[in-house]
User: What shape does this take?
Amino acid sequence: MTLQTLINNQMIKLLNIIGARPQIIKAAAISRAVKNHFSGQIQEYILHTGQHYDQNMSAVFFDELGIPEPHYNLQVGSGTHATQTARITEGVEQVLLQAASEGQPFDGVIVYGDTNSTLAAAIAAAKIHIPVFHIEAGLRSFNMSMPEEVNRIVCDQLSSILFTPTETGLQNLQAEGFAEDGIKQRVRFANGHRPRVILSGDVMYDNSLYFSQIADQKSDIIERLNLQPRGFVLATIHRPANTDNADNLQSIFAALLDIAEQEQIDIVLPLHPRTRKMLPEQLSQALLERIDSTSRFKIIEPASFFEIIRLEKNARVVMTDSGGVQKEAFFFETPCVILRPETEWVEIVEAGAGVIADADYQRILAAYRALAGKHVDFPPLFGDAHASEKILQEILDYLG
Ligand code: UD1
Assistant: This one.
């Protein structure tokens, strides 16, 4: 707690930083826990960087998940990695400095995951000695060609508390210098504290359980698209390694088309804006025409959270290059083909509920066939659905 906070006997003031679609969803779990359990101790402010800005990539989630309107919106929009990161860093620093100059400084910032918004906010806060609390810390793909891997490694280095969702995350951080007791002894922050890792469980698990029944009531997507429960495939593709590489994108779409036709199964594909932009540039005319003429292929706008939950719950198999969708499929006991060369959620693969197929046509078909009819176990790997409360209590203890 800052001296100012102590003197004024104020509540802890936290800046919850969001920017890309999955962060808005994760922040819902934290906002809900503040409201339900810590409203007398924590004052939460939301800063939206504006990294995602389309209505169906951002605003729709605020409406659905009941997240308060952001207090700050940087509206940075798209750009190269450096441009986007620099704009966010500058904007977050201004907000933090302004609050301090008005005698109402923030006691800490909360950042999520591995996006450019996460990295930029962590840099801005750490440099002016405001503790960074990183939710979803410790994940590693060990693939430095992913921008997300760079973001998460740097953010973890700057964080005061690293909340990791899984045992694997904990082990990754121990391999990077955190001791058995969770402390990194060699590093010290301006407030005298040393970095700490805490195995918190996954806030997305909190959310998925909380919103599962609400989604069943509020979304009619299964009926609207005329889908049969467990009778369709849900596919999502947005990683640059796939969208920006013609060979990879061609293989994935050829595999999806052949699965649809040979297995006589519908494929539902909510289209990320990056993928929408790249499809006409990367796919051959023949593939584009096949996509258009196959009635089994259902391409839709990016799904809302309630819609994606219902699709994940009801799909026979999920095929995705998204980290979040892999995990949500697991929460809803749906097996998953992973369209990447590796995954941060290795436990899902170890449990047999996910198969890594990369963007390889043969491997995608084989993985689909292996998972579609098989009995799969879904052991509890992601905490007890109370990760958000645990995280906020730890932050209070730290700042108090
Ligand atoms: C980002 C994250 C990724 C996360 C994903 C979730 C980084 C480096 N990557 O990827 O970790 O899994 O969000 O969706 O931060 N665009 C729009 N409208 C929008 C948002 C994006 O049209 O509302 C387009 C823009 O042309 C933009 C492109 O999509 O250039 C990519 O957006 P960007 O935020 O750079 O990365 P994502 O691919 O969304």
